[in-house]
Amino acid sequence: MGFFDDLKETAKSEMDGVKKNVRAVQLQSELHDLKREELGIYAAIGRLAVAAEGMEKFGDAGVKLFDVQERIRAKAAELSAVKGLQDVKICPNCGTEIIGDMNFCGNCGTKLAE
Ligand SMILES: [Zn+2]
Description:
This protein is mostly helical. It has two domains: 1-53; 58-114, no CATH class. The protein is built from two helices and two strands. It has helices at 3-53, 59-83, and strands spanning 88-90, 97-99. The chain has a two-stranded antiparallel ribbon. Strand 1 (88-90) and strand 2 (97-99) form a beta hairpin. Bound molecules: zinc ion (ZN). The site of zinc ion (ZN) has 8 residues, from loops.
């Protein structure tokens, strides 16, 4: 092969390398999006399961969930107080009082109207 053929080969394999890198970045991004979607589906299933079974059926995970929801309620209440707001909603499903700008009921997971 002559000099220009070698040059063409080098350029082609560099181009292939660039294409692979671009594809790898694209695949990483698609994988990331799919894993986020998967996480969202698990969360939705978890909400349904907790609503159906109650947190106490889920052992340590249920205890942690209860604890984190308590902390969310406390922070939301503190935030409302700091902002001087009295933004209180009542969950249409279970009647729990929800303080702050929560999108879901902390007790039953029902999506709340804006
Ligand atoms: Zn509720």
